[in-house]
Design a protein that fits this description.
single chain; alpha/beta; 6-stranded parallel beta sheet; 3-stranded antiparallel beta sheet; globular
C-alpha cells in the first residue's frame, strides 16, 4: 500500500471517522417512502452530500426552497437519533495520534454544527479545532469548496493536503480540490482514491521534517 506525504489531513466525518450508517438508513428510507422512491436507490445517492443536494438529485423537479426546508427537518431528526452511532474502527487512536504529534488537520463534513457535534460526541471522538461544516460553505460536496476552505484556513496549499473520505461525492470533492484522497471503507474503492483502507486501524501517521508520512497498510 502506498505511503503518502502531506502537510495537513482533511477528514470527512460520516463513514470516515464515525459510523452513522444505521441512522442514515433509518432517516433516508423513511424519506424515500414518503416520496414514493425506492429506498435502495436513494441510499446510492445520499452519502457524502448535504441533504438538500441529495434531494435535488432524487427529485429534480422540486423547488429548492422545499428541499432546504425538508433538509432542516431531517437534520433535526438525525441530531436527535444517535442510536447505533459508533466510531469507525481505529478512529480514536488515529485522531489521538494527530493531536499528539501536532499534525495540522480539519473536519470537513456535510453535517451542520449540531449534528457533527452530537455524532462525534456519541462516538467518543474529539472535535478537531478547525471544523468546516454545512454552515461554512455555499455548495455541497462533490463541490470542492469545503476542502479548499479548510486548506486556506490552515494556510496550506491544496496539493499538500490529503483527504480522508468514504463516499463518491466526497472523493470527487477532494480530487476537484487538487488533493490526494485516502478512501475509507467499503464504499470508497470504486471511486478511484489514491489509496483505500478498510478502516483506520491500518493507517499510521508519522511526523517528518517536511510534514507527515501517511502509511496506509
Amino acid at each position: 500500500m502506498p505511503v503518502l506525504t502531506a502537510r495537513a489531513l482533511l477528514l470527512d466525518m460520516d463513514g470516515t471517522l464515525v459510523n452513522s450508517d444505521a441512522v442514515v438508513e433509518r432517516i433516508w428510507r423513511r424519506w424515500a417512502e414518503r416520496h414514493g422512491l425506492d429506498g435502495a436507490e436513494v441510499m446510492k445517492v445520499v452519502h457524502g452530500r448535504q441533504g438538500y443536494a441529495s434531494m435535488a438529485v432524487l427529485l429534480p423537479g422540486r423547488p429548492m426552497e422545499q428541499n432546504l426546508a425538508d433538509n432542516a427537518r431531517m437534520l433535526a431528526e438525525e441530531t436527535a437519533d444517535l442510536d447505533g452511532v459508533v466510531p469507525v474502527p481505529g478512529a480514536p487512536g488515529f485522531l489521538a495520534s494527530l493531536l499528539a504529534q501536532g499534525v495540522p488537520h480539519a473536519l470537513v463534513t456535510s453535517a451542520d454544527v449540531p449534528l457533527s457535534t452530537a455524532r462525534m460526541a456519541a462516538a467518543g471522538l474529539p472535535l478537531p479545532e478547525l471544523r468546516i461544516t454545512a454552515e461554512s460553505v455555499g455548495a455541497s460536496k462533490p463541490d470542492p469548496e469545503g476542502f479548499l476552505k479548510a486548506a486556506a484556513e490552515l494556510g496550506i496549499a491544496p496539493e499538500e493536503c490529503v483527504v480522508f473520505e468514504d463516499s463518491g461525492a466526497g472523493i470527487a470533492a477532494g480530487r476537484a480540490a487538487g488533493m490526494r484522497v485516502v478512501g475509507v471503507g467499503p464504499r470508497a474503492g470504486v471511486h478511484g482514491p489514491d489509496a483505500v483502507v478498510r478502516d483506520l486501524r491500518t493507517v499510521r501517521v508519522e511526523a517528518a521534517e517536511d510534514g507527515v508520512r501517511i502509511h496506509t497498510g
